[in-house]
Structure formats: C-alpha cells, structure tokens
Design goal:
The complex is a heterohexamer, with three copies of chain A (260 residues) and three copies of chain B (259 residues).
Chain A lengths: L10 E2 L2 E2 L11 E5 L7 E7 L2 E12 L12 E8 L14 H15 L10 E11 L4 H15 L9 E8 L2 E4 L3 H4 L5 E8 L4 E11 L1 H39 L6 H6 L1
Helix pairs in contact in A: 2-4
Chain B lengths: L2 H16 L15 E5 L7 E7 L2 E12 L10 E8 L14 H16 L9 E3 L3 E13 L4 H15 L1 E6 L2 E10 L7 E8 L2 E4 L3 H6 L2 E7 L5 E7 L6 H19 L3
Parallel strand pairs in B: 4-6
Antiparallel strand pairs in B: 1-2, 2-3, 3-6, 5-6, 7-8, 9-10, 9-11, 11-12
The chains are: A alpha+beta (260), B alpha+beta (259).
C-alpha cells in the first residue's frame, strides 16, 4: 500500500494523464432551479464532481442577537456526502469543510448586495455528492447560480476554478491524480468576472513568484470560461421561464419571477 | 410559505380527503411517480438518486472494513444514517441528529435488516477479525413529503448495485471490485397518513402536516412484512392497519418493477 | 463465543422456556407516587424489568420559541441506566433510546388533554434500572400511571405490552431469550383500552398477515390484562389517599388531591 | 415550589438552626434514616438503591474488560459517573455533565480510590494487556438534599456485593461469576452544611439552599480520613472542620452497621 | 514501564528530594497587569508551574436568564494547555478541570463584593502553561492578583498553597515526585489571610486527624508567605502606576486607576 | 471598549491609512517589534511565547506516538490546533472550535506542511506500525491583531527547539531525548490588510476590524511561497497580491534573523 514512488510524467507531448491540454478544464454542466423547496438551487457536474447547491433567504436571522442592522449575513455551508470520497467520510463536519465554508462565504459576500437586507441571513448550502479534486470551486460556481436563481440581487456572478502545478507544469483544473503529484501546487481561485477582482484565493505547495504569475493568468482564463457557461445556464433558464410564462399566463409564475 | 398559508393548505387537503380526493389529484391509494437515477457517485460502492413526486433523496453505500461484534464473530453488519439536509427544507438545520432523522434512519435500517435480504455471514472476511460494514447514508435533498419511502427505494436501488471492493492482503484495492452484494429479498417501505379518519398512501408534505397518524410498513416480494412503525399522535384501528397492509403489498409490487 | 446454532424448542408441551404459557405475561407490579419531588411518579417491575417513571408539568415550555399556543408539548425521555443491560451501556443517549422516546411520547399525546395546557410542556422521564426485553412497553405502562399520579387530565390510560413470535409460535410478552430466536418477531403494542385504538405499534422480523392477525389478538388481550393491573394500582392509591385525608383533615393533602 | 416559597422555607430553616433546631426536628449532628435495597439490577455486577430520608439514589457497578494505562501495566481502575436525572428534581436537565454532577462523581470516586479499599492490582488479569475497569454509575432519583452521602452509601453497598464475571479464554461468560470484589476498607462520605455559623450534618435540600458552605469528608473504620471537599461560597474555620471530623467518624460508624 | 516500587526516602536529614526543607515552598514570582485586552491579569511562576490569569468584568451576564439580580456571578475557568503536562492533554476540558474551576470559583466568591454588581458576571480565566503539582493553588493565587489588577473590590486577597504528606512526613508545597509517593496525601488549601478563614479545601489520601492538624498548621504558614508575595506584587505595581501617573499627568491613567 | 468607540477608532485608522499613516505610527509595510521567549514549558518538547506588538501567543509542541495512515505507512504527520482563549479578548468564548480558530490552525499548518520543512519520513519509527505525530497547539493570550503571524512565528520558534523523546522498546522514556527535530526550511506567514484600497502589513486589531480583505502568504528563505489564504469579504487585484508577495519576502527575512 506504499505510495507509488515511480516518476510520472504529468504532461507528455502536450497531453495530460487524462488527455487534456494544460489549459483545458474538465467538462462542466450546470442546471438551475432543480429543487422546489429552496428559494434557489443549482446542480453542477464538473468532471466527476457532482454538486447540489441551494439558497434560502434573505430570511430573518435567528437568534436575534446575531442580526446585523446594516446588512444580511452570508452563511455558506459546504459539506461532503459520506460516500463522495474514496474512504467513507465521517458525517460530522470536518475542519476542512468548516474552513472552506468560511472562505467561500466571504467570497460571495462581495457580490451580494447584502446592505439591502439588514437583519437577515442568506443561507447557501452546498452538498458534494461525488468528488475528484476541485469541489470547493465547483461548489462556489454552483452557489453563484443558485443565488441568481433565488433572485438575490448581485453585483456580478462569482466564477471559480482551480489552477496549479504538477510535474513541473502549470496546469488548469487539476484532477485528483495531479493533485497527488509530489510537487503538486493547488490554487483555488474565484473572481468577479466583470472586473477580474479576486474574491477567493488559497494556495498549497511550493511555488515561485514567476510560477504564480503564470498560474494566475491561466486561472483567470479558466474563470472566464466558467463564467460563459454560467451565463449560458442562466440564459437558458430565463428563456424557459419566459416561454412558460407565455404558455400559462395565469399559471404558476414563481419560477419565472425568480430569475428576472 | 408562512404559517397561515400552511394552515389554509392543510385545511384544503383535509377537506379534499374527506371527499375522497387529494391535493395532487391522486386516488387515496395511489403512489406518486418515481424516478430513479442509479450510480450517481463513482466514489460510492452503490448509490441512487430518487425522485418521488417532488421529494428528492440521494443514498450512497460505502463498504468499510471493520471488526465483528464479539458475540457475532462471523457476521458483518449494516449501519444506516440519515441527514435532513437544510437544503431540503426551510425547517431543517445542521447539527447533531434530531429524533426525526434518527427515526428515519432506523426504520429504513429495520426494513433491510429484518427482511434478512442481506446474509450478514456473507459479510464476514475473517472470523472474529475482519468483516464488511455496509454504511448506508441517506440524504434528503428536497422534502415534499414521505421521505421514508423515498429513502427506502433509494436504499434498495443502491444495495442492488453495490460492488464489493477487491481485497489484497486484507486491504482494499482502490477502484477494483470482486462482484456485487447479494440480496435475497427486495424489502420496501410503504407509508400512509391517516387524515380525517381516512388512509392515504405516499403522503405529500401538506398531507403529512395535516395527518393524525403515520404508519409505515415494509413488505417483501414473498409476502412477508418485516417492519412496522407507527408515528404521530393519532391512533389506528385494526381495520385501518389491514387496509395499509394490503395497499403496501400492492404498491411495493409496482415499485419493484422499476428497480 | 459464536452464537449458539443448535435448534431450540421455544414452546414444548404448551410451555415456554421459562414455563409460561403462550398467552401468559410475566408478573407485573406497579406502585404509584413513589418520588416526592416529581409531580407524579411510578415504580414498575415486569419480570426482570425495573422501571421508574416521573412526570413534571404542565410547566412553562422553555425556551419560549418552542411553545405551542394551542396545546402542551409532550416530552418523553426514555433512558437505560448503564448497568441495566448485560454489556455496560454508554451513558450518552443511544439512537435507540431517542427513537423510543419519540414514539412513546406520540403514543401518550393522544390520551392527554394537551389542548387544556397551551404554551406548557409535560415532561415524562422513564429510567430503566434493569432489563430483560420489553422495556419500552414497561416504560409506557409506568408513564401512564405517573401521569395519572400527577393529576394530568387524560381521556384514558395507555396500556402496553409486547407480542411476537419465536420458534414459529405467536407468544405474549417475549423475554430476551425469545427475542433472540432466529425467527423472532417483536411487536411492541400500546392501546387506549376503552376503545382499543392503537397508539403505539412497531414490528421487527418476518411476519405474514395471518400471523399478524393472531399476534394482534393476543396483544390486545395482554393490554387488557395490563390495564386491569394499572386500574388496581390507581384504585389502591386513591383509597390510601382517601384514608389519609380522613385521618388528618387539616394535614398534608397534596398527595390525596393529586389522584382525584 | 416557586422562588418565594423557597426563600420563606429557607429563612425558616435558618431561623430554626439559630435556635439549634431543624426543619425535620433532627438534632444538628443527627443523620436521617437510611434504607438500603441491594442488588436491584440483575444485569449489574453490583447495585443498590438508597433512601436517605426523602433523597433517593441508585448505583450500579459494571465490571468491564479494558487495557491498563501504560504506566500502570498491572493495575485495573475504577471510573465513577453521576447523572442528576431530571426525574429527581425540577431543576435537573438532560445534557452533557454539568459541574455539579462532575463534582459529585469525583468526590465519591476519591472516597473509594484514596481509601485504598480496592487494591487495583487485584483488578489485573494479564499484565500490560487486560484489566478490570470497575464502572460505578450514580443516578439521582429524588433530590431532597445530600446526594453526596446517599451516593457514597449506595456505592459502598454496591461494591460490597459486586460479583466478578467468570472468564474463559479472556472473554466474559454471561451470568457466571468467580467470587466477589475484595474491599479492605469501608470508606463513607459524611457531608455538612454551614448555616448561620452553625454546622449541621446530612442537610436536607432546603438547608443546602440556605447554606454558606458545604463540607464533605470520607472516613474509614480504621480512623483514617481519605477525602475532603469544601463547596459553596462560604468559609470554614479550623474548629468547624474539627467538629465535622468528629461527627463524620461517629455517623459513618453508625451507617456501617446497616451495610 | 512498571511503576518503580523501590522505597524512596522523601525526607533525608531534613532535606527533601529537591533539597527543600519540609516547610519550604518552591520559589514564587508574580507579575500583575501583563495583558492589555483583559480588565486585569497576572503571570505567575511557582517552581516549574507557569500560569496566566485574566479577568473580564463585571460585565453583563448573558444569556439574560442566568443573571442574578442580587449579585455578580463568579465564573472561574481553569484550563491546562495541551503541552503543559508530560503526556499531551486532550484539548477538551477534562472533568478534573471542570471540578477545579467550580471549587476555585466558589473560593473567590467569598472575597469579592459580588453584591455590588447585580446582573453581571465576573469572568476569571486561568491557563496553565507548564505544570509540576500544585497548579490549582497557583491558579487561584494568580487569579486573586488579576482581580486586584482589574480593580474589583474585594474583602481580602485569597492566598493558596498545597500541603500534604509523602514518605510519612508532613510537607509544604508538594512537587510531582512527592505527589506520586505511595502514601501521598495532597491538600490544596486557600484562605483569606486577614482572618485565616478557609475558602478552598480538598484532600486526597489516607490521613489521621493528628496529621491533619499538623498539615493545616503548616499550610496556614505557607499561605501567609504566599500572601506576602502577593502584597509585594501589588505594592510594586501600584508604585509603578503612581510614578507613571506623575510622569504623564494627562496621559493614560487607566492602569493606575485600576489598582487604587 | 464599546461599539461606538470601536467604530470611531476604526474610522480614524482608515483616515490615517488614506494619508499613508497608521495608528501606531508605523509605515504601511512595517512590521511591529517581535519578542520571542523560547522553551517556556518544560513539559513541552518545544515551546515559545511570542509578543508581536501587543499581540501575545504561546505555542507548544508535543511528540506523540501514533499509527501511520494506511496509505502513508512510512510517514508521521503534524497536527495543528488553535484556541482563541477567552483571556485574549472579550469576544472569545470557550466551546467547540469556531471557524476563526479552525482557519488559523489550518493556515499555520499549511505553512509548515507545504513548505516541506519537515520530512514526514523522518517521523517514521516502524513502517506501518509506529510514527511520531507532532502536535502543535496554538494559544492566543492577547489579541491585538494578526494572530496568524504571531502563531506562525511561535510555531517555527517551537519547532526549531523541539526535542525528540528517547524511545526504549517502543515506549517513550520520560525526560530523555535523542536529538532535535530536523527542519530543512523556515517558513513564515506574513499577513496583510487591505484598507481603503491600500495594503498594510501586520495589521493591529483596529486595522483588522476596518479592513475589506485579509491576505496571508507563507514564504521560505529559498524564495518559495508555500501557502496563500485570502480572507474577508473584499477583493484583491493582481498588483495588490504582487505587492504583498514582495513585502512578505522582505519581512520574513527580517524575522528569521530573530529566531
């Protein structure tokens, strides 16, 4: 069971172990509005990663003493299903999940007009159903769509992706095998696409300043691609809602109203 | 939805049931449509996402190596947990398991365990030393009523697909499998609400809110019942239970065709 | 330490392993009003099972947000002492204890006039001191007496008993040995005796519909016997209280008032 | 009882004690009547229910197999836990152990442990591998004051009856025993309240509410003290402690006759 | 790893294993006012024991239902750092720490004029950074200085020390080696020095009444020595504050005011 | 300090920073004075108390025997925990670790772990059986801002002094040691606040309260970065990050001289 020590070539003839190019992300699909209890929701598949995100709120923050009279609280909860990882995860929230929840909530607070909803909380729940590296950026990308689906006013979406290093190469959207490289560097990154301001940034591993500059450039490019897919998702949902609204003028309009 | 709206909706549901009708136009003994998506997680040994009308749950199975209980040295076991995720309902919260989720997990557990669908001796790897523990974890994603049956269907679907990890020197080899779990029966829960003196199968959320009593029973394809659970503050009569038993066998038979 | 696999005859010549007939329950004794701090209490011995039940309330439900303006909450807590089982139980409440507490509380809610006590809680605590199968029905039977002792208005008592199957026979009030039979079926049952409505019903094990009909008939008969013992207990206590009241007209009347 | 009634009762208790009297007509150094019911649980290796006036507690002992501490490879140990059950008092609640129950358990533990009544080496089964852990669990059933002494009496009563499970191949054989636990001493706690500058033994609840300080000490039949515990926000003088010591030896002697 | 069973002479020619006389305590140093966030604080070294104590309050007791309208609550929290003991301590508070917190808080309540601060809490936090027997009395001694540093009105200080028995001898301020003696007796003791009333008293081990009388005498003497060091600490701090106040009349006077 | 005072102070801090000044007269890229007291606990294998201006933390290292992870049979590991002691701030409370302390512990952990300063293979005692777990516990004693860096400095100081307990037959011999932990790098965190569009290093508490975003990065003496962590609800631009990187290398270099 010893970790394999043989030298792996992570990029060979311009191709990665799974056949991708260095600047190529895994396939990404997002669907909005998939749960009817939540105020907003999204389902996302990103390579093997499968994520459900739901938003409740703005709703009264309770107990009262946590209320902020100037803005809404953003409560982000990232959790992994016990079976979403190779070795069963303990159902209790791990420290890793708590840290990710904190930084992702802070990343979203920047784009939400929190000042419009004093004394409330906006609860964002992200559940990982299957995983293969990059679940926190997948969760953040899905949560951003769930917020839009909930009709919560935002300055911009948040688009996120992982970037990093394996086998000496700067690559986009690392998978598990790449993240396990002896020299692996993992950089979860999230931006507000319109201004390219960075709202989430973490890094693990040994990186030089030059490598960082290169990685950031690649990451920003990846975020822009994610953003296009997010926009297409919302456009599709909006069009479906429009259509539905026309078909049944007096019908159930809730869904349609949400995304306006 | 606020409380007043809830109460009005519940009143309407009761009124309809008195007339033999339901809020979603079903017959009193009619089940909602079921959609099953198997193997939704590659990391799980078995998994399924089930939609029962608007209700949505996901169940995953992990096979974990463990030690047998001292008094059952040649038997593995199952362990069922349930999480009523806060994304499934505005009233669910994170935190230590509450009685509702514990009851859900334990009733689903009993339906599997007591049916003897799984021979726990099959789960023994080395007597007194090493056995499989089959962890079955239930997650509610959207609660529109009758999480019990949705979880039961998803559990059976997952178990039917569950692969047994391959072992080498007593350790699991990642991503390799040595066959599937053997199930000798297909137990399924069927849940009823008693509302205004009538029995309805597969209640939606608003019917659950309005009900006096809940009754769940698990049946097998060979005409056994293997678990009962009465819930709620109301009471049941013998004839009401008889009615539930008959409908449960009928509905489970239909559902089994979809697995 | 392997489980004994030899064939046991659970009923032989009409007698069970402990000498009982198939429709015979173990000996049952109940005493009311045994604790002075609680508003009502009972001590019960049922075969080896020993149970203490106590009731507090109706009292203000706290914190306030749990209050129901239409009725009293019924809070039932079933616990086993660590030493009440062959292998020491962890002091923390097990999932089994939490489930039993839930279904037993629901069973009692039906008989209590909860609508008379809005915003309050009626707390029922049941502690198992020794056990040998059937503790949940023993607890419920004791709790019912403790509620009467507390003077809480009720539509009826709740009488409970276990019924089930072992060695192919339908039998009343299974003991541990019978519950461990390879084909054991255990059915905890509780009714409101006046109407024979069922307020608690669970079942474990493989049972046909015919067996169920037979078991229910036997169980109802058992419940009626339990009810007689409950009534005798309350009658005895009432008479004692009457007597006491006469002896010391101006004395301590609290006890006597409770059971009126 | 509401707070006002409590305060009035407490005031009366203080007033009486100033006159050398008590609410239940006892002398200041007089213990309440004790009733001991042994072996109340067959599943326990030892158990006792004790009534000390209106106060009622039950204690059970379980002998459990465990590993020794690395630095004490040939010694077993004891573990004492206490639950202030909510059935014993309107102010007790379920939940993680609170300081009150932790203090109770630890003081009862020390009375046993520090008296060296049990030779922990007797509890060793196989050096460095397997020892007995003697779990002593205290449950308050009705709190009418002085749970400390009631628990101490019930603990000693239980330990004196405790049977050692029979072992075969290192495993416990159910319902068979190989003799009793050996106790070389009979330590008993004796608890006092200091009220209005006076010392009373075995306080009832209302006296505990009114007291400035509490003092518990454990004594043995061979004239040792083996545990002190001062509680409460008041202070004690040397002569008050002397008075407690003398009364404690006297009372414990009487109680031991009942064991 | 078996415990050493050979006979140790704990006192030989009037000297203990570490060279001290039977009535000699380990060296004690206290410094007041070392933390600026807390309302009062103290650092103490007593032999190997190292203790930080801090006081916050009187401040509003929350949640409101714990408030006492007649007096301040005294909340004492004694904790050991994980690395302050030979085997790493679990970070969760042990039962021992909870018991010590309770008895030390009760000991201090006697000296604080709690009746002057209804509805408030006075929080006293004691953290043990290194230990070698006697940390609870060290903590109490430090806490007493932190309370004075916080300017909380007190009837007296609390002076504390351990006394006990090892190898048949009654000795002051036992160290770990002595506490591990086969016949060890440990008596944590705390008094209000002006009246010599006892506010903390515990004892472990087999002791005769005669030994107790001797031990108490020795303990009281030890407490008086501790009291002298406490007073010197406060005097020094007061003088420093005075000086500071004169140097910068209009400057930061908070510190100086606190100890008046 | 009440909320109004805090807000006024925070406003002042922002106003000063807009003018390129700080509340304590430092330059925007200037670190506070550091005081390091090593080996403050004899029971710890390594320890240090660090004062960073008014901020004060203590860190201790314990070397504990444990089992390796099954997939890393020849590697030990580190475990970092942090407690924001209530003595350090009026807003800290006892209780289960909150997100703030978990983040602090995990960022300090990553700075050490990802720098590969410690070769986890050095911590293996017996492959697959026994390894060292290096427990690093951080305690905040006084929070005047930038606990991250204070803890990082104290952690590195402690690790540089950490003694490895001597083993005999696989057990630790008390108070004997077999050399020190080997560190191949000296990683240090450097933390910045972004306030009113400007970047300041080593923020004091009032600056932290006023900041839009926080950025921490760990650097090594051989020009690597080994951990980033952005916090707070604000955003960062590429050039702001560049500025942080350059200042972090500069400051860490200065701090290393003091170790």
């Amino acid at each position: 069971m010893a970790k394999k020590e043989e030298k792996i070539e992570y990029v060979k003839n311009g191709k990665r172990l799974d056949g991708r190019k260095v600047d190529e992300s895994r396939s990404l699909k997002i669907e909005a509005g998939i749960l009817n209890r939540a105020d907003g929701s999204a389902y996302l598949e990103w390579g093997q990663n499968k994520v459900i995100a739901a938003v409740y709120g703005p709703r009264e923050a309770l107990p009262k003493h946590i209320q902020n009279p100037y803005k809404a609280l953003v409560n982000y909860q990232y959790r992994m299903a016990t079976f979403s990882v190779p070795d069963r995860k303990n159902p209790r929230p791990a420290r890793r999940e708590i840290e990710i929840s904190k930084v992702c909530g802070e990343a979203l607070e920047k784009v939400i007009f929190v000042e419009k909803f004093p004394n409330t909380t906006i609860d964002i729940f992200v559940e990982i159903l299957d995983s293969n590296a990059g679940t926190r950026v997948a969760g953040l990308t899905a949560a951003s769509i769930a917020l839009a689906d909930a009709g919560i006013p935002m300055r911009d979406l948040v688009a996120a992706i992982g970037v990093g290093k394996a086998g000496g190469e700067i690559i986009l959207d690392l998978n598990k095998e790449e993240e396990d490289a002896p020299d692996a560097v993992d950089i979860p990154l999230a931006i507000m696409p319109r201004t390219e301001e960075i709202v989430l940034l973490q890094m693990d591993g040994l990186l030089t300043k030059e490598e960082w500059k290169k990685a950031l450039k690649l990451g920003l490019k990846g975020c822009r691609q994610v953003y296009e897919i997010q926009r297409a998702t919302l456009r599709k949902q909006y069009e479906a809602a429009e259509k539905e609204a026309k078909v049944g003028e007096k019908g159930e309009r809730e869904k349609g109203e949400k995304v306006k | 939805m606020d409380n007043v709206t809830w109460d009005l909706k519940a009143d309407k549901a009761v009124k309809l049931i008195k007339e033999g009708k339901r809020v979603d136009d079903r017959a009193l003994d009619q089940y909602r449509a079921i959609e099953i998506k198997k193997n939704i997680s590659e990391n799980a040994e078995g998994s399924a996402l089930v939609k029962l009308g608007g209700t949505e749950v996901v169940v995953g199975v992990k096979m974990v190596l463990g030690e047998p209980y001292p008094d059952m040295p040649n038997e593995g076991t199952i362990s069922v947990g349930a999480e009523l995720l806060p994304l499934a309902s505005p009233v669910f919260e994170f935190g230590p398991p509450r009685p509702e989720s514990i009851e859900l997990a334990r009733v689903v557990d009993r339906a599997v365990r007591e049916s003897k669908a799984l021979d726990f001796k099959d789960l023994c790897i080395e007597e007194g030393e090493k056995v499989w523990i089959v962890f079955i974890d239930l997650y509610a994603l959207n609660d529109d009523g009758n999480l019990f049956d949705a979880c039961s269907i998803a559990t059976l679907s997952s178990l039917l697909e569950t692969r047994i990890p391959k072992l080498e020197d007593g350790e699991i080899i990642k991503d390799e499998y040595s066959g599937k779990l053997k199930l000798s029966r297909k137990p399924l829960l069927c849940t009823f609400s008693k509302i205004a003196g009538k029995i309805v199968v597969d209640p939606v959320l608003i019917e659950e809110k309005a009900h006096d009593a809940r009754f769940s029973l698990a049946t097998t394809e060979d005409n056994y019942m293997c678990a009962f659970q009465k819930g709620g503050s109301g009471s049941l009569t013998e004839s009401e239970i008889d009615q539930c038993i008959d409908t449960a066998f009928k509905c489970a038979k239909q559902i089994r065709k979809q697995l």
